[in-house]
Structure formats: C-alpha cells, structure tokens
Write a sequence for this structure.
C-alpha cells in the first residue's frame, strides 16, 4: 500500500516560477491527486491570486492544493519559519487523514520536478528514514561556458569526497551510486520522525541541514537516492543569504578571476577515518569503547554526554560524537579546487592500491 504523503512548499513572491513547480507536481506518476501545501508568506507580487486563478481554470487538476497565507514579521520573516509552517501544515493534514505512517516531502518554490519525484521518494523511504534528492541546475546550458565548467569540477570534487567515504567508511543504507545532497529543495521523511524531533528548527539559513542533523542524532538512516533529482534555479538573486543563489554568485565571481577555494583533500580523509573509528568504537565493550574514544579526543565525560539521552545505533553515536570533536577542531584548511581534485584522486588511488595489496597477501 502506498503511504499517504503531502508536499510542503514555502513560497514568497514566486508568481512566475511557483506555477511551474505546481505543473510538475500535477504531472506526477503517483497514484491519485498529489497533496500540496503552499505556505505563502509576505507576498506582494500577486502570487496567491495567480495560484487561485490557476485552480479555478483547472490548471492544477492533478493536485489537492491548499494555500496557506501568512505574514511573518521581524526576526521570524525568513525561510526557516516559512518551511516549518509549511511542514507543520502538512503534518496536520496527514493527522486529519489518520495517516500516522504518512510522508512529508518538501521542495522549493522555484524548483521543477521530474514526473517520478514523488514515487521515487516513496520507494526510497521503504529502506531509509530520510531521503535527499540530487540538485541539478535548471537551464545550465544557458550559462556562460566558464560557469558550466566550474559546476562540473565542483561535482567532481564532491564525488571525490564521497569516494573516500565509500572506500573508508561505507554506509550499508546509502550505497553507491549515490549523490551528496539533502537540502530543502528535495527532502522526504515520515511525519512520525518529524514530530519526534520537534519539527524543523526555524533558522534563517541552513534549516534543512539542521533538521536532518536532528534526525540523524536520533539514529535515522539518510539515503542519497540516485533515482531522485530536482531542477533548481541558477539565479543569483535568491531569497536566502548562504543558499543556492549565494553559491551561484560565488561561482560567477570565480569565473571572473576570484579564487574558488574548498577544503583540502587531506581534511576529508582524516574526517572520514575519524568517523569510521567512532563507528567501530560504538560496537566495542564499554571499557574498550572508552579507550578508543579517548584516542580520538573524547574523554569519559564527553562519552557520557554523547550517551546521556540514549543512543539507539551507531549512526546516532557517530553524529553526536563527531560533532563534539568538530567543535574543538581547527577550521578545515582550504586550497584551490583543482589542487583538491588532484589530491582526492591520488588519495583514492592510494587506498585502492592498499586494498588490492591486502587481498593479494
């Protein structure tokens, strides 16, 4: 049986792009109408009127659409508050349906989705508690050649980081092939898990990663499913400082001569090795676990704090312990992206050679 789901979308002044998102949701291959909540906050461009007119004209016939209007003021007037309100509205809708096993999906108002987005999320959530979709830049062919080339190199960089994870600390619930994205542009999870962590933290930026962090702190499995992607806008005048638009502006400046710096490859190798050591330590007897964690910089008091609220599995243990270690660590050293790309490839090749030598011995 297909689990009921609601797609939750925060939106402000997206009269031009939001109807395109809703068109893509209306064309999903899911069973029955797709339930969608739009949290329209602080709109001044006639967006709500455009949506109402579209509903009346039958444009969104494949949707069961609820539009919630809100005015956010002062320090609360940001996407974190709006996304939380959208997800809360979706959770309440599932409660009305009596769907305790229901699913919440969230995306951005300026995104576009393939017809398989809903069904692919639901399939992936049969074997994980959180599912992220890959971000694909919408209209990348129209970008300047230099930006397109940099985008490809950035993709290679993060693929190189994931390769180190797969070689040194593979996660059974998130096998290759996989991507690395779990942002508000494409995220899915059970409503019960959303309620259990107290909902989305209403932060002005990074609210999506904060929510995923809370869920992983509780032991939730995160899957970066290769069957799920979302087309995201390449615009540089976004709604959120630090969001995708900020990154696209940074890449445009890099093409104009500004250095594009990323953490060194060695930083990622050490981080992955540390997380792998923490994962092994979780399964050790108590005394041996303390000794292993002490070697990583976690004293007995730190370990007690990590375990204080109960630790259901290694996922939760690693997330909590590694974050604590991270707060005491120096910032990641950075270098030019092309240096990092070469170093990532060299490290992966060294690890693979070492693995082959062990097998041959």
């Amino acid at each position: 049986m297909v689990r009921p789901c609601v797609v939750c979308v925060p939106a402000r002044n997206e009269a031009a792009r939001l109807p395109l998102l809703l068109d893509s949701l209306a064309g999903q291959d899911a069973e029955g109408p797709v339930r969608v909540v739009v949290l329209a906050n602080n709109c001044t461009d006639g967006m709500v009127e455009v949506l109402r007119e579209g509903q009346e004209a039958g444009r969104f016939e494949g949707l069961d659409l609820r539009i919630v209007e809100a005015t956010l003021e002062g320090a609360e007037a940001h996407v974190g508050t709006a996304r939380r309100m959208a997800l809360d509205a979706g959770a309440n809708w599932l409660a009305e349906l009596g769907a305790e096993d229901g699913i919440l999906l969230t995306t951005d108002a300026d995104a576009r989705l393939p017809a398989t987005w809903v069904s692919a999320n639901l399939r992936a959530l049969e074997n994980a508690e959180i599912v992220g979709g890959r971000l694909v830049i919408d209209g990348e062919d129209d970008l300047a050649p230099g930006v397109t080339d940099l985008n490809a190199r950035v993709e290679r960089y993060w693929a190189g980081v994931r390769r180190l994870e797969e070689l040194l600390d593979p996660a059974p619930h998130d096998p290759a092939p996989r991507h690395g994205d779990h942002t508000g542009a494409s995220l899915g999870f059970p409503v019960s898990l959303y309620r259990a962590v107290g909902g989305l933290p209403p932060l002005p930026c990074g609210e999506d990663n904060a929510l995923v962090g809370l869920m992983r702190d509780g032991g939730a499995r995160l899957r970066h499913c290769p069957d799920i992607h979302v087309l995201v806008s390449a615009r540089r005048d976004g709604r959120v400082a630090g969001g995708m638009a900020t990154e696209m502006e940074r890449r445009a400046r890099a093409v104009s001569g500004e250095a594009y710096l990323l953490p060194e490859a060695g930083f990622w190798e050490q981080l992955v090795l540390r997380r792998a050591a923490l994962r092994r330590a979780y399964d050790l007897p108590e005394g041996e676990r303390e000794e292993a964690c002490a070697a990583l910089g976690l004293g007995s008091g730190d370990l007690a704090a990590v375990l204080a609220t109960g630790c259901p599995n290694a996922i939760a243990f690693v997330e909590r312990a590694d974050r604590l270690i991270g707060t005491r660590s120096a910032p990641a050293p950075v270098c030019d992206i092309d240096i990092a790309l070469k170093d990532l490839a060299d490290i992966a090749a060294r690890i693979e050679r070492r693995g082959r030598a062990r097998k041959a011995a």
Remarks:
- The mean pLDDT is 94.
- The first strand starts at residue 5 and ends at 11.
